[in-house]
Amino acid sequence: MPLQFRSLLNRFVTLSVVVPCVALSSWAQSGNLHPWSNTSLSPDERAAMVVKEMTLDEKITLLHGTGMKGLSLMSPLAINSNGGAGYVPGIPRLGIPAIQMSDAAYGVRGSGENGRYSTALPSDLAGAASWDLDAAFEYGALIGRELRAQGYNMTLGGGTNLTREPRNGRTFEYLGEDPVLAGKMVGSVMKGLQAQHVIGDIKHYALNDQDSGRNAVNITIDKRAARESDLLAFEIGLQESDAAAVMCSYNRVWGDYACENKYLLTDIVKKDWNFKGFILSDWGGTHSIEKASAAGLDHEEPGEIFYGDEFKKAVEAGKVPVTELDDHVRRILRGMFAAGVVDDPPQRSVVDIMGGLEVAQKIAEESTVLLKNDHAQLPLDASKIHSIAVIGPHADVGMISGGGSAQVDPPGGNAIMPPGKGNTYWQAHIWFPTSPLKTIRAKAPAANVQFDSGADPAAAAALAKNADVAIVFAYQWESEGMDLDSLSLPENQDELIAKVAAANPHTVVVLETGTAVTMPWVDQVSGILEAWYAGSRGAEAVANLLFGDVNPSAKLPMTFPRSEADLPHPTVVKPPKVTVDADHQGWKRIAAGLPAFQVTYDEGVKVGYKWYDAENKPVLFPFGYGLSYTTYSYSKLKVTPGKNPRVTFTVTNTGNRAGAEVAEVYASLPAAAAEPPKRLVGWSKVKLNAGESKEVSVDVYPKYLSIFNVEQNGWQLLPGDYGFMVGGSSQSLPLKQSVNLK
Ligand code: BGC
User: CA 618, 623, 624, 627 torsion: positive or negative?
Assistant: First the structure.
């Protein structure tokens, strides 16, 4: 019998038979049909009560998706799907709603197909550059509101993979190279989302640090290094937010697929981290029934190659214990109750466009990093500038965005498509309609502001030569489903910048990139702003920064190396090309398993700045670096040992304009720990008026000072001398104090 019909029938039976008994209770009197409707019970109690009432078929329904629009066969049950990446029908007779999942990395995906649009925030990496936990909360809350407005109750955002390989095409979806920064930022994003009663999800667990051959690659890394780097980011993110879901990744780790890896899923996430929610596979990342189930995979997406009828048969044959099945189901229900999607289902409404744009702009202003500002070239003074050359691909109409499942359909669609064709599609270069040329013209209405696309560097240089200032908007596009071959700017833009800079000594480069780029022209230009993928209001934010209406306050969440030769791996290892169709047969081939190839992370814990520090390699711009239009000084460091050592210091704004400084705290461990020279252990973003001083205290969580002891399977704080260092970047740490911790 079709499930929906069965559910309707069950509901009818429930109403006619059960209600008279329940009517005696206060629950029924207040309109609640089920004992688990009692919101004063814990999510665990409520979930356990529902599981007891469920039939085997109902349990199986919760274990898998129903297909994905456009990609694989849809189950007839998907009739009520909202069109997002995943849909799990609810159990109406038990009052359990459907789960409507949507990708939502930097905004809700695919709204265009629903005749809507979503606010495109700056990329996740940009958000991390703000180092602002409140902004991260607001980032999540905005996405949560827009998901609900479009009928979704679960996000598939929450990318937390460390930037171990900066050429990874999804770097823009992640939160940089440091586990404490990434973990705390994703924790705040998830808190913001779940506060809107949307199920949070952290992905792609684990070590999915390159996209090339992601369905086949086998990652090997020392276990301690994994726990102290990539896995620590997830651990902190979950601890901070209690996100209800974790998405396991496509790749293999230590020989087993992540989604059937007992050590990763059960031993670490469910046991060590005491995670109470559910683990779902990345799309097509499930590869078995018994093995995956025993390993701790709770839910298959997007279909039911393994976790549907075949799973039911395995339960009936005793191959999957009922207790294991019940645990999967209980976790999914528990996540739904905990996130509030049962008690407060989403109501469709109109997305608040203006409110969204305002948030997007504020976060872009907070996340654009000023990398260079020779001779106080910036901020520009509109009253003194007569002419500006605005140069760069599409800088007259838009700013680039990141592609793949993170892609957002913003108001106005794609700025470079002909009218009527403004929608986005998989792996297209989408330029958000936020025009640098227009916003710069608006800031300098008396100046002659001319545009050149830069297609012909000589013509662009000629325009620049006659202008007071040249501003070059340079881009690098990336997306899920690919990695970059190099960190160079594409389309001859290095030559363009070099030629323009040679023609005009007042050249400012604004970078629109998803990761680090190399800059052979770095010494030739006077100013550099890293705007990342700046979102729906990127140009407005950049103009405010260029003209000083906003003082830059962002810091790099990842190192910019001098060249690819300095990376731990000279090239990204790619598998032989395997073509897999994007249809049901394609999913089946992936599910059956593609031939493995090996990538070994022998740099271990030395990710990002830890690598360059340990290897003594100079960098272009270090982790944690970023300039301001004012200056700051640091003084009066005092470290108070204790369970959570307290690091207290004073930051002073020594310039003549208000600003916000990200004050960073690093620690070195005792020599016996054999760790890289330092690690980030905390920070505080401090707002200061001109001349103002503030005392700042950062409490350091002991785990951030510990090593992971694999034999004892636990974090261990080694007794000895710890050096605490404080300052404005990983390479500018004027305050230092050593304390003995036991
Ligand atoms: C991506 C996930 C995404 C899913 C659903 C997968 O290909 O790796 O990040 O959430 O598709 O769109």
Answer: positive
